[in-house]
Write a structure and sequence with these properties.
With about 525 residues, the chain is an alpha/beta fold. The chain is globular.
Length: about 525
Amino acid sequence: MQKIIEMRNISKQFPGILANDHVNFDLRKGEIHALLGENGAGKSTLMSILFGIYLPTEGEILKNGELINIHSPNDANNYGIGMVHQHFKLVEIFTILDNIIMGVEPNKNGFLERKRARKEIEDLCKQYDLWVDLDAKIQDVSVNMQQRTEILKMLYRHNEILIFDEPTAVLTPQEITQLMATMKNLTKEGKSIIFITHKLDEIMEVCDRVTVLRRGKVIGTINTKDTTKVDLSRMMVGRDVVFDIEKKPANVGDVILEVNNLTVVSERTKKNVVDNVSFRVRAGEIVCIAGVDGNGQSELGQAISGLIKAHSGQIILNGNDVTHKSIRFRNDNGMSHIPEDRHKHGLILADNVANNLALKKYHLNPFQKHGIINQKPINELAKKLIDNFDIRSGEGLKSRMGALSGGNQQKAIIAREIDKNSPFLLSIQTVRGLDVGAVEFSHRRIIHERDEGKAILLISFELDEVMSVSDRILVMYEGKIVKNVMATDIDVEELGLYMAGVKKDIVYPNQLSKPNLTAEIKEEENERKQA
């Protein structure tokens, strides 16, 4: 089969780290080729070289057997290479339409033809089932819609070589299925796809071949039909990985988080995105909010964390009414928070790793004295967390946070928030962008925190995570809780029906506060049927 792209002996040196070490990689016409590896293995760096974001330290790139020079993303686009980035390259104050056409604006006699652009994008939305609000500003839409915008940017440019860097990290199961179908259709049209993902199920479903990187080097390239998930995970991390984490039954204690009749109104649509929601989370349990993205889960998490204001209702944390309290107050009085968008709400990318790991503690002793930052204990804290959570970077605690891979940035946030030892942990998309080894480690740590008596609220679009980690599941649909069930009493198929709104239960507030939910819910259902 024809090789449309060849990358020969590619190396890339950053301060303190060799990100790519004489990598050889090729892409065949009409195939989906997976690029797999641990966080920080060099996958995104390699593709950033192909897309012109980085220049290689050494090596060469060929297209259809001819040597090409790529010095910028514009060069890559001229060669028909497009990229959906793991961390979005979008202008927040611009509309989705403007972000898609930026740099390739259609014009006639120097005048922008917005109607023509809109029609072309709407046709793409319909063709690939990627619906977006073209007039909405990026700053006002969900992470999922931002991801769709990135995909539409590439499709609008009619690229023939498509690089997908973790495109499913923020998509729901239904949307992932749609994207997989879209990718297959694109290859039928003659396009070639490089697919960076940590999700082995996705690789086995749609990819023809897999190239595995570990610490910047190629471990091997193999046909997907000739391998298994177990083999791939072993190649990736160098050891066996446990996919199903065992946990003992929850030892449920006092209520730590209480949400009463909470309503959040969208500033853009003026509609209730969280509609009179009530629930409780107790010490020693993991409660997961499940649902298709866009049904109020993100807004619920932002209201609990203090990122947005609630229109009405009450949030009680560790005995304190925090409904109108600041984020600082919540952080200092019992809350740890792993945010959905790590760049916007979790990190200062221009600052170093050490200072980022101390963001929740720098104002406390011994990290400051009389208002003066004390760097020594900050560095000591950073060294401990880097070791305990395997946060990899070129220059350790001195590395600029923005220079770390997405997975290592996520591990830094997880380390910082767990280290706070708060009685309540709010975690949204905990394992976004993590490799299978890091996912296993993170899930074990969360379960350990539960066993230590912490109350944990997860908001996740990953059904595997919902089913394996949760003790109790609350399903949100159109801003309301439509199902409250123990994780052991529901399967993936039935959960999907509730997430899609096909099935709904009447969920009574008192059901959401009792430890023995299974018996209580069944008893009340029987009483209603008899009545």
